[in-house]
Design goal:
The protein is of the alpha+beta class. The chain has one domain: 2-Layer Sandwich (Beta-Lactamase), CATH 3.30.450.150. It is about 40% helix and about 20% strand. The longest helix is centred in the N-terminal third of the chain and has 18 residues. About 45% of the residues are buried.
Length: about 140
C-alpha cells in the first residue's frame, strides 16, 4: 500500500500568523477576525477583535477553508470563474463555506500547501493586507499571495 504524507502548518506558526494579522489590523484601525486552518481545513488558530462584526468570525474561517481546499487565494475566484460554465459557477456558489472574495490565502511553504488563512471584518483590500502581513511573517511562499 502507498501512503501519502502531507505537511501541515504548525500551531505555533498559526498563532503567530493570527497575531500578526491582528497587529496589522490595529495599525489600520480596523476590527477583524482571523482564522488559520491546517491542510485538511480544520481550524487550528483563531483570533477575533471584540469589535469585529459578528458574521466575520465564520467568514474568516470559511475564507481559510476555501483557500486551502482549492489552493487559490479567494480574491482570484472572480477571474477563475470567468472560464467556467454557469452550472459550475452556480454549483460552487451553493457550496457551504465557499467564499469568492478577498481575504483568504493558501499557506504554501517550499511549494507545498500546508494550510490556509482567512481574514474578515474590514474592507476586502484591508482583509487581504492583514493576511499578507501574516503570511510574510511566517515565511510562506510569495507565490501563494
Amino acid at each position: 500500500m502507498n501512503i501519502v504524507k502531507q505537511s501541515s502548518v504548525s500551531w505555533a506558526s498559526a498563532q503567530q500568523a493570527c497575531a500578526t494579522a491582528m497587529q496589522q489590523a490595529q495599525a489600520l484601525s480596523v476590527h477583524i477576525s482571523v482564522a488559520v486552518v491546517d491542510r485538511g481545513g480544520r481550524t487550528i488558530a483563531f483570533l477575533c477583535d471584540p469589535l469585529a462584526p459578528l458574521h466575520c468570525s465564520d467568514i474568516a474561517t470559511d475564507k481559510a477553508y476555501t483557500a486551502t481546499s482549492f489552493g487559490l487565494p479567494t480574491h482570484r475566484w472572480t477571474e477563475v470563474s470567468q472560464g467556467m460554465s454557469n452550472a459550475v459557477k452556480e454549483g460552487l456558489l451553493q457550496r457551504d463555506r465557499m467564499v469568492m472574495f478577498g481575504g483568504g490565502f493558501p499557506i504554501v511553504v517550499d511549494g507545498e500547501r500546508v494550510g490556509g488563512i482567512g481574514v474578515s471584518g474590514a474592507s476586502e483590500a484591508q482583509d487581504m493586507e492583514c493576511a499578507v502581513a501574516a503570511l510574510n511573517k511566517i515565511g510562506a511562499d510569495r507565490e501563494s499571495v
